[in-house]
Amino acid sequence: MGFTLFKTFSMKKLSIVTVIICLISATMACNTTLVMPEEGNPHKRTWMAYGATTRTWGTSGSFGANRLIARKDLMRIAANIARFEPVSMIVDNEDDEDEARGFLDDVLREHVGSVYSGGKQLPAVQSNNIKFLVHPVDDLWIRDTGAVFVTDERKSLYGIDFNFNGWGQENTGAQGWKKDRKKARNGIEDQIVSNDRRIAGFTIAQANATKVSTWLVLEGGGIEVDGKGTAVCTESCILNTNRNPGKSKADVEAELHRTLGVKKVVWLPGAKAKDITDGHVDFYARFSKNGHIIYTLDNDKYSPDYETTAINKNILQNITDVHGNKLTPVALKTPDSSVVRAAVTKRNGWYRHSSKFDEDTFAASYIGYYVSDKFLLMAQYGDPVADLAAFNILQNIFPEKMIMQISTDGISSGGGTIHCSTQQQII
């Protein structure tokens, strides 16, 4: 089919590459082995960004209409995470902080009294777990703009700045870099990202982590790891001239080994220029700690993701991790788009065919959950059958976690998920 499904690295070649890279890196010791833990391990805190600024979302059209809804979604996400762990919320200015606190008050009023999920009583929202930090920010997608935190054998904390370039829109200076003009032809507009390109450095400094530099251009949503040496990525995102021109799979795999401890990559083809991310893998496939590979399956033949998710399904049926263990594939089917439209327009007070709901950009995928050692936070889209089915599947995979299901209509309208708006800082 024109792409390599997976590849186990040559350790001899990797050691040579690592030595060369260490000679030019002054930010970490050469004998340090870095590992990115699986997301469901304990967190020190969750990082979020109170984005959806008027600079990026505007004040009109679908994005402008959903901007404040997205911001309230952010505070709903933060409040539910704060039941279990601290949240550091980056705000653009003090006025935005005041607005965020107001939305938080609204959310807290929604959660008066005991709240149950799957028969389990959830801990109360701890609003003092949410800390606001003023720093220039453009948008809310901190999964992509923030640092990726890793650790070593001594449990020291490192933060990797993967050189966010606006999902391929900004010239990195690398030889052969080329902007994908097909995105513009597909109606995908460039975004203001000047502030967001500094978010990784800010989170690293605030976390008091050691910075790890890399030539690799990558967003956090562009890679998923099991924490034991296996990763899943899309070719369309990483092996793209708008990010890493002239780099081979071997080049990328070696750098993923150095920075994240990855020893085997499962490559999915992805979907170039169909969305702003060029097909981030966290919209398609995720690992679980107990040996599952969870994947999105879109059975709507008219959906742009129908063919992509069908290809992914075929690839993921028989994959193994780096140790040769077969992973158990589990499908999360997308909800019915017509039912979602009806539910979202009704609960937001829009008329049925309102331009405020754009089916082309509305991201309805249950795989965009956020998980820690104690909880899993997932979306519900107003399709009661699909919502419940997804909840039950994830409860079966993660029986030890409290699962919370919330609406995120604004963030979904912006083309993202709960996962896109969060970034874990590991312990």
TrEMBL record:
SUPFAM superfamilies: Pentein. Keywords: Hydrolase. It holds the Pfam family PAD_porph. InterPro entries: Peptidyl-Arg-deiminase_porph. It comes from the Eukaryota. GO terms for biological process: putrescine biosynthetic process. This is Agmatine deiminase. GO terms for molecular function: agmatine deiminase activity; protein-arginine deiminase activity. It comes from Absidia repens.
